[in-house]
Amino acid sequence: MQLYTRKNIDFILHDVLEVEELCKNDYFKNHSKETFDLVLDMADEVSKKTSLPAFVDSDRNQPALTDGHVKVHSGLHAFTKAYADAGMIASTFDESFGGQQLPKTIYAATEYVGMCAHNSFMMFTDLANGCSNLIATFGNQEQKELYIPKLLSAEWLSSMCLTEPQAGSSLSEITTKASPQINGTFKISGQKVFISAGDHDITPNIVHLVLARIEGAPAGVKGISLFIVPKNRVEDLSQSNDVTSIGIFHKMGQKATPAMHLAFGANDNCEGYLLGEANQGLTQMFKMMNGARLGVGMTGIACASAAYHHSLQYSKERIQGKRLDLNQKAASVAIVEHPDVRRMLLRQKAIVEGGLAFMLQCYFYIDQIRLKPERKSQYDTLLELLTPVAKTFGAEMGIVSVNQGLQVLGGYGYTEDFPLEQLARDVRICSIYEGTTGIQSLALLGREVFRNDKIALKLWHSEVQETLELSNEIKELQAFVEEFKQKLNIFDKLNEHLEKISGEGNSEIFLKDATAYMEMFGLLNVAWQWLKMAQIAQLKISIINAEDNFYKSKIQTMKFFFKYELSRVNNLSEILFQNDTLTIFDPNNEILV
User: Fold this and answer.
1) Is 416 tagged catalytic?
2) Counting Cβ atoms within 10 Å, is residue 257 exposed (0-12), middle (13-18) or buried (19+)?
3) Which of 213, 272, 336, 537 has the fewest CB atoms in 10 Å of its CB?
């Protein structure tokens, strides 16, 4: 069955974002709508043939660590080879690297297609793309020539190694050590945990990107460097580079991807190579992490999409109960006819389609930098502001959406007979990957919103205002424009309130409800996207008299989002305007939680 709506992807890409405009740029000049469509078709074909058939079996038969070696599901071998052979990993890279110079927006759409089929398999190829990008950006010529071709072809694969047993989100506490050697290399020693795809038998080598501290480096985040640490010696793959798999963490979901506990240099023989400048590792790694955060948000939306299509099909096939307005002698109907089931289905649809539009909007900003380099600073600033919001909305609302799907299936959703229980387990990790929701919320409110005289927020307002002005020209949308403006006014007053508290120096009061602020800002961003989509859909209906239910469904779902989701801004604002100390620890008057 189809786990996403291709027409919706095309609608966002071509009607809302108008991605073909990118082809006017020299970098993208070899592309067109036809090539974009072909790439999406290829992603769909690869997924249906290789990853989707293994979705359930790779969950039931998870990776195993035996005699120091990890064996993963055979479907992963077939998938990574097919994905790489189709040029998908390399697609966004320069032609000089063998890439196709594909826009990031289109690549993100192909990832979404792949994630809908198998969210866990896509991590392997996504890591290869991300690590290659980091080496291309910061590596020397020798490193680029050695590693990038092998990673983009999936001859080798890769991982990113940040977290340590004593240092989770607090990366300043990293203790993995890098000792300089006479030959210019470094001996690496330390342990890393929760390393996704950190060991497997797909390729003969794995390129680990490892955060470590050079001996004598400054304390805290300023003293962290980034190193390339291959699993095996690159000059002789039969020789171990003293990277040891200590164990696999047994997860509730995404079981096809091993989460590894790795030891580097247990025998004092692990060789690493500095990537970029010393003591700049965290800044460099955040370039990959920001991309990964968008990827995690997209994963949440993709899981939600797969769950939505499964629950939609079930609701049309499951006959149970009678319509509320019919007498009890009437025949039972498909549960899709019951109002509460329709509410749950509409909530899923609103989250999936609105969330996807928001994710692709962020990727589109990345491509806009090539189209309008003079506005690079503005687009970078918008991305810094919106990346944690997109990650969090996709993750948290992805969980909500999948759970609504479980509810539609009732007891069957809780069983292994349907994929919903697996999707519910898979999507749950998204709010933890690449920084928990709490960490993302602190970064948004504590760092991004008010810095540099709120320049990011002002740029965002400008983007939203353009949509409001265009939507207000359409009679059918004017009431929704006014409703959005009311919510935006609440948001603006809240920002004035919070800025005043911040100025008074009370950080705990200022940040205590950062997650509520994140939730509110996420709702505003997705409502903005729904207005953009409704604007195009209404024009299609009005100007060309389109009878296609696709466009009518867009309008209906926009109305649903405004009524059931955007309305929550009022309640969230009530929480955020209160300066209480309910959640603040008082050492002089401790009350147990």
Assistant:
1) no
2) buried
3) 336
pLDDT at 173 over 90: no
Q: Which of 360, 379, 381 shows the shortest CA–CA distance to 301?
A: 360
Cβ atoms of residues 348 and 413 within 8 Å: no
Structural domain 157-280, CATH architecture: Beta Barrel (2.40)
Residue 149 three-state SS: helix
Q: Which residues fall within 8 angstroms of residue 335, CB to CB, at 6 or more apart?
A: 315, 318, 319, 320, 321, 341, 408
pLDDT of the residue at 592: 65
pLDDT tens digits, 359-381: 999 999 999 998 889 999 999 99
Strands 224-230 and 206-214: antiparallel
> What per-residue confidence (pLDDT) applies to 442?
96
Q: Which band of pLDDT confidence, cut at 50, 70 and 90, is reported for residue 403?
A: very high
Q: For residue 168, what pLDDT is reported?
A: 64
Beta partners for 243? 264
> What is residue 585's predicted lDDT score, i.e. its pLDDT?
85
For residue 426, give the nearest of 3, 77, 192, 121 by alpha carbon: 121
What is the token pair recorded at 202? Answer: 């797909």
**593 band by pLDDT with thresholds 50, 70 and 90:** low
Instruction: Say which residues have a Cβ less than 8 Å from residue 69's Cβ, sequence separation at least 6.
Output: 199, 201, 245
Give the rounded percent of residues in the chain with a pLDDT score beyond 90. Answer: 86
3-state DSSP assignment of residue 200: coil
Confidence at 589, pLDDT banded by 50, 70, 90: confident
Rounded Cα gap, residues 495 and 497, in angstroms? 5
pLDDT tens figures, 526-578: 999 999 999 999 999 987 765 678 999 999 999 999 999 999 999 999 999 99
CATH topology of 6-152 equal to that of 157-280?
Answer: no
198-202-207-213 Cα dihedral, nearest 10 degrees: 10
| R_g over Cα of the chain | 25
Residue closest to 212 by CA, chosen among 124, 281, 286: 281
The distance of Cα 332 from the centroid of its chain, to the nearest Å, equals 41
User: Of 111, 164, 434, 519, which is the active-site residue?
Assistant: 434
Domain boundaries 6-152, CATH class: mainly alpha
Q: What is the pLDDT of residue 485?
A: 98
User: What b/e readout covers 7-38, taking b as 16+ CB neighbours within 10 angstroms?
Assistant: ebbebbbebbbebeebbebeebeebeeeebee
Please give the helix or strand (H or E) that residue 309 lies within, else none. helix 281-317
Domain ranges of the chain: 6-152, 157-280, 439-580
